[in-house]
Amino acid sequence: MSTKVEILMHPVRIKICQALMRNRENGLTPLEMVKILKDVPQATLYRHLQIMFDSGIVCVIKEKKVKSVSEKYYAINEEEAKIDGSEWRELSSKEKLDYISYYQLSLMTQYQSYLKRLGEQNSQEDGATFSVVELQIDDEHFTQFQNELNELMTKYYHNQSKGNEKEAPVRTIAITIIPET
């Protein structure tokens, strides 16, 4: 079968992961996912969801009986959905470029959807930003920087919307780190 990297970095599965991360508390049924991922046909979603389930990347968190059918609610298994350094290092340069391309394409698609929504709302409030920063720091400080950045992202990921009565909008934060240039 495929490696975890191959499973996670498929464009459709990236979308499934994002939808499940946004609904990690209650999970989603496949039919709810189809409504969210409008550009993914139902049969395609089921096929990719099964691959993710078989690999342990998603799990069933509850089942509800609806009429005579049992509806399964899926959630992302966050530990299994992480790619560790050893898995990444085993890939060829071509595979890494392909996967980074899928990742960037996914971001570009999200940004296009965002701009389309702004246009539909006749809004000039584009809150998107991007920047490039080159840091000249030694390996120890670079590792410390990466760890602190990861801790900050994890903190806000796990504390999102706690205590808010109103549902907060989803904000995508995407970071690519290139260790040396």
Automatic annotation (TrEMBL):
CDD domains: HTH_ARSR (cd00090)
Cited SUPFAM superfamilies: Winged helix' DNA-binding domain (SSF46785)
GO MF annotations in UniProt: DNA binding
Coiled coil: none
Superkingdom in the source lineage: Bacteria
Domain called HTH arsR-type: residue spans: 3-90
A Pfam entry, by short name: HTH_20
UniProt entry keywords in alphabetical sequence: DNA-binding
This protein's name: Transcriptional regulator
Protein source organism: Priestia megaterium (Bacillus megaterium)
